Amino acid sequence: MHREVEIAAAFIELSNLHGQVFDEARYADWLARFSARLVDVDASGVLLTRPDGTLAPAAISGSTAQVPQLVELRADDGPGITSFRTRTPVAAPDLRAEKRWQSFRSAALKAGFAAAHAIPLLSHGEAVGAITLFRERGGPLGYEEDRLTESLAATVSACLLSRRAVAKAENLAGQLQTALHTRIEIEQAKGILAERHGVSVSCAFECMRSFARRDRRRLAEVARAVIEGSPSVARLLGDTQPIP
């Protein structure tokens, strides 16, 4: 019963993260801590994808896991990276007999680990990272241990992808709002120039664009200066019709 209570407490803590400012490190820390606490392992390390798609260390449980994880990233080879790339769990129940990942294997053995197990962080086929579980004794994870780790990893994966999607949408909305505001300012500036010089709106736009090119300034910056009547665009705002 004690384990069931700990699992419930873990998911209550995870639900509380949803009400806080989005911080991927908190989700990674939650996964590292509770996988090491609830599963029969001695340490764990979480890798998460950066915006460019590369992996980076996000959290560890047990300081001894730090060196093997860093070695894995430097060598670009290890159970976590393999699991992430193949989208499948990877087991190394006996690191001494393991033929893969020589740099990682040496670092893990030196840190006192005899086995490593990695699980991808997946949701709907999309991977956001991987978690590697370290054990000081060899042997495979039990079925229940394996299933529990997969459940923890899948839950965090879904949370991360959901929050990333929201953040991406908010960022896109901000960009669209900025673009709309810029467009409105350009239209206002065109109207000001057209009225002042008695030319068409299209001619006013060409004048403003040519001015921006000559001064090596952004069109939006010139438009804002026109609206504000800035001295920096005095030639455009002068009584003489500007020449494109």
Unreliable spans:
239-244
Strand order of the largest sheet: 2-1-5-4-3
Radius of gyration (CA) equals 28 Å
CATH architecture of the largest domain: 2-Layer Sandwich
How many beta-strand segments? Answer: 5
Main sheet: strands, sense, barrel: 5 strands, antiparallel
Q: What's the overall average pLDDT, rounded?
A: 84
Q: State the CATH superfamily name of the largest domain.
A: GAF domain
Output the helix-strand order: HHEEHHEHEEHHHH
Overall shape: elongated
Present the secondary structure layout.
Blueprint: H1 2-17, H2 24-38, E1 43-49, E2 55-61, H3 66-75, H4 79-86, E3 90-92, H5 102-110, E4 115-123, E5 126-135, H6 143-197, H7 201-215, H8 219-228, H9 234-237
Antiparallel strand pairs: 1-2, 1-5, 3-4, 4-5
Protein name: GAF and ANTAR domain-containing protein
Keywords: Kinase, Transcription, Transcription regulation, Transferase
GO molecular function: kinase activity; RNA binding
